[in-house]
Design goal:
Aspartate Aminotransferase, domain 1; about 15% strand; binds pyridoxal-5'-phosphate; 2 domains; 15 strands; Aspartate Aminotransferase, domain 2; seven-stranded mixed β-sheet; alpha/beta; 17 helices
């Protein structure tokens, strides 16, 4: 057995590549390992080993809206670890998860009364897709096997999620493992028609008619479900045009197709409501969630499910397992206890109200960047915004990388994908912190463009 020396040095170890970092340009990062280590976090800031303080512009990966090291959440975690650290959820129940299921169902749109727990967004999406297939099969419509996703969508990295996902770089290497028969709606972004939209673009509801075209092409009898993020997050905050989600709902209902909203990013307050479906007043048949449900402190994900789907499964012999699916850590007691603490804080500190108050502050601030010659587009909705930089000729992505590096040197931990970056500040941020973030960005954008 190899023993680590007492002299362990993270920077050196990172350079040797033993740690293969996810969604990372590993060789590039290894070269600059010293500047890529975060050693602690508190509130809205991360800290590097050499004491640099970085504002958390994306709330982790959209998952830490209450900030870091929140004492009450840490305490809930410790207490639960002492009381019941683990118990299988297969054939056994523990109170903390049962209560959480009730609580989440109460928060969700009223048609979604049942919760199936997973541990991540990826698992939540797989679970929802399997539920959709099972639902139709149990109703004697096993021919409905097709899933409809959307271009630019991110639904995690399982084979289910990449099949319905629409980010080419996440799919092309793995085409051999994709689900059969998946098709995609077009994404709803058109720079020529909706650049610099504040909130929902008023143009583009007709994109929903793509679904009618896919129904005409494949026939409704082969289509199980449509899955969309109400607001596409990972692809740089693409906000649905006014009327688009409503129309998708109508078409799904008309053809007996299930509608799944992937609310892994939009759930738990980011849209100023518990769920985006509440904000848009569109009721899907399932909602997938993860991330902020535990404020990122431990993993948890899950699916909120309609009564109709639940009851369709609750048939057959009573001794038989109705849905042959689940994870060792489904409904993990520590994750559930943490989630209760998160939801308590959101309620008691009226964080949804705070988010709704910050939304116009962020909107005004980010749109004040629109006049910079290096900015190609600015979009916003809820407490999030996406900004596209004008790419450098022949070197797309270079400006995004440069902005990220400059951010690290100037107190911002940014999330850039190509030349696009997204902002999703913590809900606990003050107006001043939001404005400071945008003012720093203004300087940095001017520098890199
Ligand atoms: N779905 C959406 C909409 C997401 O944004 C993400 C992650 O960003 C996922 C699914 C996957 O979640 P996870 O990384 O927890 O598997």
């Amino acid at each position: 057995m190899v023993h680590l020396s007492n002299e362990f040095n993270c920077e050196d170890a990172l350079k040797d590549g033993s740690y293969w970092m996810p969604f990372t340009a590993n060789r590039h990062v290894r070269k600059q390992a010293g500047s890529r280590i975060i050693s602690s976090a508190k509130g809205a800031y991360y800290y590097t080993p050499d004491g640099k303080k970085l504002f958390d512009t994306l709330s982790g990966l959209w998952c830490t809206p209450l900030g870091h090291a929140v004492p009450r959440i840490v305490e809930a975690l410790k207490n639960q670890a002492e009381e019941l650290d683990y118990c299988s959820s297969f054939q056994m129940a523990h109170p903390v998860a049962v209560r959480l299921a009730k609580r989440l169902a109460y928060m969700a749109p009223e048609n979604l009364n049942h919760v199936f727990f997973a541990n991540s967004g990826t698992e939540a999406v797989d679970t929802a897709l399997k539920l959709a297939l099972g639902y139709h099969r149990l109703r004697g419509e096993g021919g409905r096997f097709r899933m409809i996703g959307r271009e630019r969508a991110y639904h995690g990295v399982g084979f289910g999620g990449i099949s319905v996902g629409g980010i080419v770089s996440n799919r092309k290497m793995f085409a051999a493992g994709m689900l059969n028969g998946v098709d995609h709606l077009r994404h709803t972004y058109d720079h020529s028609k909706m650049a610099f939209s504040k909130g929902q673009p008023t143009w583009g509801a007709d994109y929903a008619e793509d679904l009618e075209r896919l129904v005409a092409l494949h026939d409704a009898s082969t289509i199980a479900a449509v899955i969309v993020e109400p607001v596409q997050g990972s692809t740089g905050v693409v906000v649905p045009p006014v009327g688009y989600l409503e129309r998708l709902r109508e078409i799904c209902t008309k053809h007996g197709i299930l509608l799944i909203f992937d609310e892994v990013i939009t759930g738990f307050g980011r849209m100023g409501e518990n769920f985006a479906s509440r904000r848009f007043n569109v009721k899907p048949d399932m909602i997938t969630f993860a991330k902020a449900v535990t404020n990122g402190i431990v993993p948890m994900g899950g699916v909120l499910i309609s009564k109709d789907i639940y009851e369709t499964f609750m048939t057959g012999p009573e001794e038989a397992i109705e849905f042959a699916h689940g994870y060792t850590y489904s409904g993990h007691p520590i994750a559930a206890a943490v989630s209760h603490a998160v939801l308590d804080i959101m309620e008691e500190d009226s964080l949804l109200t705070h988010v709704r108050g910050l939304e116009p502050v962020l909107e005004k601030a980010v749109h004040s960047l629109s006049d910079l010659p290096g900015v190609r587009d600015v979009r916003n909705f809820g407490l999030t915004a996406g900004i596209d930089l004008v790419p450098e000729a022949d070197s797309p992505g270079k400006r995004g990388s440069a902005l990220f590096e400059l951010g690290m040197q100037n107190g911002l931990l940014l999330r850039c994908t190509g030349d696009t970056f997204s902002l999703a500040p913590p809900f606990i941020a003050t107006e001043e912190q939001v404005l400071d973030m945008v003012e720093t960005l203004r300087r940095l954008i001017i520098t890199v463009t």
